[in-house]
């Protein structure tokens, strides 16, 4: 029994350890300057730690098994001085110096004041993300639950909260930083490779904290410019039975669909909902069926969600609304 | 023979006593007939206990502050429908049957009412009286209606029969709700006692229902009849009406034209504040724009129109939503979701704004 348990443990540990090495939320698979720097620091720390551990265990084995004679008081004093004080201090100073040297790149002050480049404002709300792209050449572009940024450009972020403390982290690009009500926290990110990542809320913020995430997409400069242009535009469909039902039932009092009379600002902007990677801030796949499910019973999908349930609508109206929203690419 | 009382015997006696009591009750010799009435001492004791209980339970009840309760007219209509048959009314004294009840419900004369404080009357009207046949108010959440009834009771003794009839029945003749050959006309006459045949009557707390969408009116009638929307007055009225007639009644009132809103005496700043909330909501407190649901001509027909509605009615409904006791159609939870975010002044501002808009 015990042998089996330890065998299972022996299998489980490497499995768990390596599971975190890849995937859309792994800090060990960096796609950004900050994440790369932190990953490098992590590997150096791991390597140094492993070497020190081996040296300590080696000395222990040597002292217990091999060496039978007692050190003289002078020799023991020298060992304590060099191995116990000087070497660890030097190693720690080197690592500290390396860590400090990384910091300017992790929180570059220059990116925080630059007004001439893209600046992304992200507001944490229970339990979703309001994302506003401030462009140097045009009005802000409002979106939600998805952060896109161009590869190779440093992007400034200002992080806010509308209710409680949330935290913003894209493990594969960088972070994390708290979003605190009444404050604006600033930092910046620079993606080095294109990809789609997951950013979870990393500060407990209520019953659906674990269901509050966003998709982060790093795109080539040109693709990003095209995407932002499309995202800034109005909805692709501004009529039809789905929109009629959406407006007639008052969804527009909380949600905006640009190009239609729906101009509410309480909930997420839905202008291009169909083009997003996930639904309900990472809680559901972005499909028509999932939209219908969320509209009918948000509380069942995300406990504590502020949106009231619309399950009392006739099923065909919910279906029409879901089909319309899914088509908003 | 000398019986000695000790702990053991006392315990046995205590254990046997309930069984003995049950046995005596089962024998059925105790006379529950009303023909002989109570003994004098029983009557005195029951009355003493009732008065004491009402006095004690009324202690924490404080009459509402501010202006005197509005809504005396619907209270009068409710009195005629639910109370007058036992307590009598000006020009319509209690019948012989009622006077033979045990206990006999009192005629609500000035002398009878002077015995009770406002808080005590509130207690009796809201909670009823056990063993007397006096029922509780049908909607325990509607203290505002109970206070309106207390206010009406204070006026009742002074009312001349004609004034009482016009207060309780409006233009409709008193007997029209009862035995009219046409069932629809009878039900409509019941509505018309407060709302008028044109859907504009009833006083400050009664909504203008003329020109409202039929789907909303029918759904609200059903909500009252099924107890999903709290109102002692409307639950009684809708519960007495034939549910099969709700659609026709709703269509009748939907077909009436709403009157022009009376000139408002609300402060312009108040109306302006209401307009701002109605148009943009209060996003930082998650209060959506009212007009997003209520302002669209092609809205869901179960969403009521608010333009030209009476301000007292609107403010009262917002208060009930905020307290979480409003209920209503299957859509009413949409209002409950945020109504408690509105302050009293904001509710008044919204009521003033919608009251100032011409009805459509």
Describe this structure in words.
The complex is a heterodimer of chains A (329) and B (360). With 329 residues, chain A is of the alpha+beta class. Chain A contains nine helices and twelve strands. In chain A, a hairpin with a 6-residue loop joins strand 2 (128-134) and strand 3 (141-144). Residues 7-11 of chain A have low confidence and may be disordered. Chain B has 360 residues and is mainly alpha-helical. Chain B has three domains: 45-59 and 67-168, Cytochrome Bc1 Complex, Chain D, domain 2 (Orthogonal Bundle), CATH 1.10.760; 171-254, Cytochrome Bc1 Complex, Chain D, domain 2; 268-356, Cytochrome Bc1 Complex, Chain D, domain 2, CATH 1.10.760.10. Chain B has helices at residues 7-27, 40-57, 72-87, 96-99, 110-114, 118-127, 143-155, 161-169, 183-195, 214-225, 232-240, 246-254, 268-280, 291-294, 311-323, 333-339, 344-356. In chain B, helix 3 (72-87) crosses helix 11 (232-240) and helix 15 packs across helix 16 (333-339). Chain A binds chain B through residues 162, 244, 247-250, 252-254, 261, 264-266, 306, 308-309, 312, and chain B through 281, 283-284, 286-293, 296, 298-300, 303, 330-331, 333-334, 337.
Kindly list the characteristics that best describe this protein.
heterodimer, A: 329 residues, alpha+beta, five-stranded mixed β-sheet, three-stranded mixed β-sheet, 12 strands, elongated, B: 360 residues, mainly alpha, Cytochrome Bc1 Complex, Chain D, domain 2, 3 domains, 17 helices
> What kind of assembly state do the chains in view correspond to?
heterodimer
Give me the number of helical elements of chain A: 9
The sequence of SSEs of chain A as H and E is: HHHHEEEEEEEEEEHHEEHHH
Low-pLDDT residue spans of chain A: 7-11
What coarse outline of chain B follows from CA principal-axis ratios?
Answer: elongated
Major beta sheet, strand line-up of chain A: 3-2-1-5-8
Radius of gyration of chain B: 25 Å
- Tell me the count of domains of chain B: 3
């Amino acid at each position: 029994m015990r042998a089996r348990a330890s065998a299972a443990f022996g299998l489980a540990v490497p499995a768990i350890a390596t599971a975190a090495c890849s995937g859309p939320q792994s800090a060990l698979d960096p796609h950004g300057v900050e994440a790369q720097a932190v990953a490098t620091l992590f590997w150096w720390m791991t390597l140094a730690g492993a070497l020190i551990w081996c040296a300590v265990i080696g000395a222990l084995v040597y002292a217990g098994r091999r060496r039978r004679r007692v050190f003289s008081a002078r020799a023991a004093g020298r060992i304590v001085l060099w191995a116990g004080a000087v070497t660890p201090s030097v190693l720690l100073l080197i690592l500290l110096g390396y860590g400090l040297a990384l910091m300017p790149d992790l929180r570059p002050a220059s990116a925080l004041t630059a007004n001439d480049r893209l600046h992304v404002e992200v507001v944490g709300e229970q339990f979703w993300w309001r994302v506003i792209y401030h462009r140097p050449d045009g009005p802000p572009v409002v979106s939600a639950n998805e952060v896109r940024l161009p590869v190779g450009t440093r992007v400034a972020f200002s992080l806010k909260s509308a209710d409680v403390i949330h935290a913003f982290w894209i493990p594969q690009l960088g972070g994390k930083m708290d979003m605190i009500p009444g404050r604006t926290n600033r930092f910046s990110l620079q993606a080095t490779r294109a990809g789609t990542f997951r950013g979870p809320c990393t500060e407990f913020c209520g019953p659906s904290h674990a269901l509050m995430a966003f998709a982060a997409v790093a795109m080539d400069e040109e693709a990003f410019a095209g995407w932002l242009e499309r995202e800034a535009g109005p909805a692709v469909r501004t009529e039809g039975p789905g929109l009629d039902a959406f407006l007639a039932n008052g969804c527009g009092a909380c949600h905006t669909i640009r190009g239609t009379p729906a101009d509410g600002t309480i909930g997420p902007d839905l202008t291009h909902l169909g083009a997003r990677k996930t639904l309900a801030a990472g809680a559901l796949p972005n499909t028509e069926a999932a939209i219908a499910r969320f509209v009918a019973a948000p509380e069942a999908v995300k406990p504590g969600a502020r949106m009231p349930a619309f399950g009392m609508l006739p099923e065909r109206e919910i279906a029409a609304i879901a089909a319309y929203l899914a088509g908003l690419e | 023979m000398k019986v000695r009382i000790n702990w053991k015997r006392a315990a046995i006696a205590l254990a046997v006593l309930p069984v003995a009591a049950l046995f005596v009750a089962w024998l059925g010799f105790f006379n529950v007939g009303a023909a002989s009435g109570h003994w004098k001492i029983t009557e005195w004791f029951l009355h003493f206990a009732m008065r004491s209980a009402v006095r004690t339970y009324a202690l924490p009840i404080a009459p509402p502050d501010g202006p005197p309760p509005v809504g005396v007219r619907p209270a009068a209509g409710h009195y005629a429908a639910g109370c007058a048959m036992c307590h009598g009314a000006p020009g319509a004294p209690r019948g012989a049957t009622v006077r033979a009840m045990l206990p006999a419900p009192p005629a609500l004369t000035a002398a009878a009412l002077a015995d009770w404080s406002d808080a005590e009357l509130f207690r009796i009207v809201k909670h009823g009286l056990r063993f007397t046949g006096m029922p509780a108010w049908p909607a325990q959440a509607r203290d505002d209606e109970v206070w309106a009834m207390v206010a009406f009771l204070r006026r009742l003794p002074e009312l001349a029969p004609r004034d009482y009839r016009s207060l309780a029945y409006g233009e409709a003749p008193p007997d029209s709700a009862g035995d009219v050959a046409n069932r629809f006309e009878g039900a409509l006459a019941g509505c018309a006692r407060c709302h008028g045949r044109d859907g504009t009557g009833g006083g400050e707390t009664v909504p203008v229902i003329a020109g409202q969408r039929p789907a909303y009116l029918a759904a609200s009638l059903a909500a009252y009849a099924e107890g999903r929307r709290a109102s002692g007055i409307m639950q009684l009225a809708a519960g007495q009406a034939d549910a099969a007639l709700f659609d026709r009644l709703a269509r009748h009132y939907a077909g009436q034209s709403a009157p022009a809103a009376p000139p408002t005496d609300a402060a312009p700043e108040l109306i302006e504040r209401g307009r701002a909330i109605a148009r943009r909501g209060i996003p930082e407190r998650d209060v959506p724009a009212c007009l997003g649901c209520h302002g669209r001509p092609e809205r869901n027909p179960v969403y009521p129109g608010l333009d030209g509605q009476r301000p007292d009615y609107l403010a009262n409904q917002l208060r009930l939503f905020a307290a979480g006791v409003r209920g209503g159609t299957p859509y009413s939870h949409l209002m409950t979701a945020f109504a408690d975010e509105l302050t009293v002044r904001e509710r008044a501002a919204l009521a003033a704004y919608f009251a100032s808009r011409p009805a459509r």
